[in-house]
Fold this sequence. Notes:
By secondary structure, this protein is of the alpha/beta class. Helices cover 40% and strands 16% of the residues.
Amino acid sequence: MKTINLRIGLLLITMTSMQAYSETLVFEHVNVIPMDKEHVLYDHRVVVVDDKITRIEPSTAKLEIKADRIIESKGQFMIPGLSDTHYHQNGWSTEEDDLQYKLLIANGVTSILGMGEWEGQDVIATRYRANKKSTLSPFFSTVGPQLDANNIKTPEDAIKMVQFHKDRGYDFIKIHGNIAQDAYFTLLEEAEKAGIPTVGHTQRDKPFEVALRMASIVHAEDIVMAFSDEGNLKVVDMDEILANNIAKQVKDSGIYVAPTLSTVDMIQDWTDPQRFKALKAREINKYLPKDSLAWWLSPKSDYFQPFFKSEHGLNYIDKVIKGTKMLTAALHNAGVPLLIGSDCFGIQVTGFSAHEDMEQLQSAGVPTYDILRAATVMAARFLNRSASAGTINEGKNAQFVLLDKNPLLDIKNTRAIAGVMLKGKWHDKKQLTEMLDQVETAYKE
C-alpha cells in the first residue's frame, strides 16, 4: 500500500509540475492570416494554452477562459512561423548555434532545414538539442553530408552512403554535385527503398529529367544551368516559351523547388561598384563574425575573381539572374510548389536572408500570398510537419509571428516583427531586440 501511495504521490507531483509550466495566453483584436486559404480574420482572438492554439474566435465573443496574460494586438497581423529550407550551420559549437538561432527567431523563422553536415559537425546531435522544448531554437530538420563525385564514385558507394544515412537518421539526402550516372541512379533507388527523400542540385552533365527524380531542387539557377553550355560559359537564352516548357515538366514531376533567388542575385553586390558600396555599409553586417565579413569583402572573395569583372562575366551573371527570375515566375504560374531557401552562407546574414529571399520572389512576380504560402504551408508539407505547423488553426502548435504591418500588401512587411510565439513561449519585441543585441556583442569580440 505504501508503494501504491508513493506512486500516486509521484504522479501528483509530476502533474502539478506540468501544470505549473502551462500558461494561457490570449491575443486580442489581432488580424489573423491563417494560411488555410487566402483570407484575413480581422479583429479576432487567439487563445494559446501552453504550446497549442485552442481557440480562434471574434474578439467580440465573450472570453470564456481565465488568461494568464492578455496580449493586446490591435492593428497587428498574425502569420504562421516562417521556414528557411536552405539553412547552413556554419558553426562547430553549441554557442555558435545558439547565436544563429537567435538571429532566426528574431526574424520570425521558426523552422529550418540544415543543408549540409560539414566535417567536424554532428547535425544529428544538433537536431536532438534544437528540437527540445527547453532549447531556444527553431524546429530543426537536416540532410547528411553533401554527396558528389568525391564521396560517391560507384554504385557500391551509393548503397553504403544510403545505409549510413538510414543508420544515422538524417531526414534527407543531399546531392551537391555531379555523380557518375550508374552511381546516381543507384543512390536514388536505394534512397527510395530506405524512405529517405533526396534533395539537391541538378546533374548538369545529364539530361534534366534525371534531376526530377529527387524530392526537391534547391536552386532555380541550377535548372537554368542544366539547359546551358556551362563548359563554354554560355547561358541559355531563357524566354517565356522555354521557361513555360521547363515549368510544365517540373510541375508534372511533382517535386518542390527552392529558387534561392537572394543568393544568385547577390553576386551583383560584388560586380556592381554601387551595390558593393551598399553591401559594405549594411547595418546587418554587425551580425556576422568579423573574420568572415572581412574575408568576403576582401579581394580573396570568390566574386572578386577576374571573370566576374570582365564584360563576358558581367553578361554571364546578368543572363543567369534574369533567366532564373523568369523561370521562377513560370514555375509559380505552372503551380510548382515553391519553398523559401535562402542558402544563408558566406555574407548572407542568417534570418535576415529569409526575408531577402521572399522579397526576391516578389521581384520575380510571385504574389505576396503565395510567397507566404511557400514560407509556411508548403514548407510544413515538405518537412512533414503539417499536423502541427504551417497554418494558424485550432489544434496546431502555437508557432507564429505577430507583425505591425500587413504582409499581403507588401512582403517587406514580414520584417515588421512585433513578437514571436515558439515552443510555448511568447517573445515580445523587447526580447527579440535583446537577442539581436546579444549576437552583435558576441561578434564584436
